[in-house]
Amino acid sequence: MRKIKIGIDVGGTFTHAVAVDVEDFSIIGKACVPTTHNSKQGVAEGVVSSMLDLIKEAGVQAEEVILIAHSTTQATNALLEGDVEPVGIIALGKGLEGRLARGQAFLDDILLAPGKLLPVHFKYINTSEEVTKDQIRDVVNELHKQGAAVFVATETFGPDDNKHEKMVVEVVEEMGFMGTAACDLSQLYGIRVRTRTAIVNASMMPKMIETANLTEKAVRESGINAPLMVMRSDGGIMDITEMRKRPILTMLSGPAAGVAAGLMYARISDGIFVEVGGTSTDISVIKNGMPQVKTAQIGNNRLSVKTIDVRTIGVAGGSVPRIDKNKVVDVGPRSAHIANLLYAAYTEHTDFSSIEIQQMQPKQGDPADYLRVRKAEGDFTITPTEASYYLGLVKETGHGAANMDAVKSAVEAVAAKMQMPPENLVEEILTNTSQKVDAIIRSLIREYKLDKDFAILYGGGGGASSLVPHAAGYMKMKHKIAKDAEVISAIGAAMGMIRDTVEKSIINPSENDIIRIRQQASESVISMGARPETVEVQVEVDNANKKVIAIAMGSSDLQTRDHTKDLSDVDLRSIASEALKAKNGQIEEFGKTKLLSLLGYRKTVKHFFGLMKETRQPAVIINRDGTIKRKFDDVTFEVSTVSRAKTNISTLVEELRSYGDGGELMPDVFVMVSGKIIDMSGLIELSQILSLVELDLKDIDPEEPAVVMAVKKR
Question: Which of 236, 268, 363, 545 is placed for a possible disulfide with 262 were both Cys, Cβ 3.0 to 4.6 Å?
Fold first, then answer.
């Protein structure tokens, strides 16, 4: 029997669903329905409709489905549109910490978006004497009378002792309300940021939980009993039960799903991922086989939530040009479907000789110079999609090829009305869009120190071919359009790893502190359905900010792939060669385990006008299916066994440790064993590294092959 994962992406215009066979990651079915923003059931109706269409059209049996995961725009849209509930803040404390709680947890209404405020109400409970449930009920009732509909409990040192926060939420739920304990979202000190994060989370809970319940009910009624997951903003997935507690973690989950697919399906190790929809384009960086993550913000307010670093611009495949005096002066941000205009590329009408061009205002407050092409059959426009088709830039057609006769007739008729050659019209449209893409990409290249000569633009989304080929040519960069680009985010949702992050404020953490936090992160993803043997945990000790961070990832299924379909050594070396920009024949196998290989080459780097030389070893860790898991500019390694790993680690650390202005610099250490990578790159003491690697290797055969790697900090 097949094992199938279903991924669903809720976009601004369409909701896409795909079925992925986990044996070989092949796509066995696709479905698409309009996103149901205006339905009584909200976007949940589109999620379920797309899933049912997919199951029917692809012939999927309910018992074949092992996981369903979907991204969602709902959390982001709720904040942008102010579709949230007023929050009652219950702060707790005594003495000095009580004064801190009063001063820093008493927040003003939070600005979510221009003209959209989240109302908050505040009450304080003194914990000098025992806090009772009756006391909490009185406070909740008073806040409810003031207008609060959901509640937050926050205490100055809640990360150390959360009993009061938990007690408040327990009482709130007994009274029939929804509540969030700040400690459930962050274990970091800083009551203001923790409280603000909890407020935003609580405010969206009613709407998000309603949608989650509708989705889960409909899925179960379809006969599918597989786990139901939701995409997180950091590129992982979490089960729907956890989403009900922490809906804030789904902010920007749509773009995160695209990046997840870029890593696992398009197999991008280094590049700039450009996901193009109909209205907007999301741009993000993948570097050394990892997505780039940042702290989320609402307006200028920092939150205790991590998101993929995504830059969004208001130009895409369906963006409408703005015109003035026979010249294209801008493109977007308004799109054709919002402006109620048809794409000329997707009409059956091929004669545009009798048209009138006008300037229009799509929505109140918009500029009144958007291009409308009036025709007897309806109102059209010329978007970057038509422009790219006209110039022959579209090679991958996604949902369907354009009507080229209509494209040619429409572009030439509009150009004639604007008294310019048709090539000039489409070039003006695409140059405008490429300039906007260029500005963002230049910024990302500087910020993440990318080599522009080697960086590649990877296009995803239904509108990828309408923007990426021209933008790449404009910037003199290479580009690729991802396979199945039009459903790339749905694929990312299906292939996402179950993920959770634990951050805790600790001054001078002991090895036991680090192990406890690692275990907490590991247990969290296992409780959401990850199989223990698939779980990998990365731990970082941040001395500057006095905190420890543990990021755990795991899969809900064992690797069931047919290994007769694994790539050959020649194919793996070819992929590694491209990722490392190596010459033909340079790549060699440095080491391997059952499921992973370390492939790289040696190169000589000259310094000081060639007077000094050093040898470097660029390398990648690559899976048998060709997925690059890590990329290193210079790695030192020892081919080892599990029993010798700790000794090899000590040797490499002694060889590669260095000293800077801040003291000793530990190399980044990794151990590759079977199909797992033990990542200890965030640890700052040898004893911490040895303790964690011992924990990770304790249940593995001592003679199992392993590769120990270290990267010197420069």
Answer: 268
pLDDT digits (tens, 9 = 90+) for 513-537: 999 999 999 999 999 888 888 899 9
Do 649 and 671 form a contact (C-beta atoms < 8 A)? yes
Range 121-128 average pLDDT? 92
Q: Are residues 587 and 572 in contact, defined by beta-carbon separation less than 8 angstroms? A: no
Which residues, 6+ apart, have CB-to-CB distance to 177 below 8 Å? 140, 144, 149, 150, 151
pLDDT at 261: 85
What CA–CA distance (Å, rounded) separates 21 from 111? 44
User: Residue 444 and residue 454: Cα distance in Å, rounded?
Assistant: 14
Q: CA-CA distances (angstroms) from residue 253 to 167, 379, 531, 636? A: 31, 34, 23, 36
Question: What is the rounded CA–CA span in Å between residue 56 and residue 50?
Answer: 10
Q: CA 584 → CA 513, 574, 588, 599, distances in Å?
A: 48, 8, 11, 14
| pTM attached to this predicted model | 0.83
Q: In the chain, where are the structural domains located?
A: 85-191, 264-496, 497-554, 566-711
**Given 1.20.930, 3.90.1200, 3.40.50, 1.10.1740, which CATH number is that of 85-191?**
3.40.50
Give DSSP secondary structure letters for 63-107.
GGEEEEEE--SHHHHHHHHT----EEEEEEE-HHHHHHHHHHH-P
- Return the bridge partners of 641, or none: 705
**DSSP state at residue 186:** -
Domain 264-496 sits in CATH at 3.30.420
Q: What is the mean pLDDT of the chain?
A: 89
